[in-house]
Design brief:
This protein is α+β, with helices and mostly antiparallel strands. It has one domain: Gcn5-related N-acetyltransferase (GNAT) (Aminopeptidase, 3-Layer(aba) Sandwich), CATH 3.40.630.30. Helix content is about 30%, strand content about 35%. The chain is built from 4 helices and 7 strands. A 7-stranded mixed beta sheet has the order 1-2-3-4-5-7-6, with helices on both faces. The protein is globular and about 40 Å long.
Length: about 160
């Protein structure tokens, strides 16, 4: 059966952890250092979905990817800008799931009347850069050695799209 994009449910937390924790443990794509528990992920989902969309791409068997938006910055002047995130299971890459999720997320954000979305990418990460640019994002910033993981400094780039 083809994957379906739908709103997240709290019961998706364990599957989302399965996707995310692979990247935590094996990559610098996320700066998170420790695996996230299902209980922690449920709390993140609950907090995020109070205001912003969180979508999953799921088959009958499991979740294969997810995308969501969060608050960009705390000051009121930033309230119409969000930070976006997308992850696809490492064994489901290059099948168009990330693109489908991100485009649906952009539609949901437009539906909320938001103005801009920002993606933060640990660099180098050619697949994420390509995905963001395919979705209309353009590079607007680059911070050298902004984070440290696995004993090395990692650059961070920011991509933005006006909704």
């Amino acid at each position: 059966m083809s994957p379906v994009i739908r709103s997240v449910a709290l019961t998706d937390a364990a599957a989302i952890c399965g996707i995310y924790n692979h990247y935590v443990a094996h990559t610098v794509i996320t700066f998170e250092q420790d695996a996230v528990t299902a209980a922690e992920m449920k709390e993140r989902i609950a907090q995020t979905t109070m205001r912003y969309p969180w979508l999953v791409c799921a088959t009958e068997e499991d979740v294969r990817g997810y995308a969501y938006a969060t608050r960009w910055r705390a000051r009121a002047a930033y309230d119409q800008t969000v930070e976006t995130t997308v992850y696809v299971a490492h064994d489901a890459m290059h099948r168009g799931l990330g693109y489908a999720l991100y485009m649906r997320l952009m539609d949901a954000l437009r539906g909320q009347g938001l103005h801009a979305a920002v993606g933060c990418i640990a660099l180098p990460n050619p697949p994420s850069v390509a995905l963001h640019e395919k979705c209309g994002f353009r590079k607007v910033g680059h911070f050298p050695e902004a984070g440290r993981k696995f004993g090395k400094w990692v650059d961070v780039g920011f991509w933005q799209v006006l909704l």
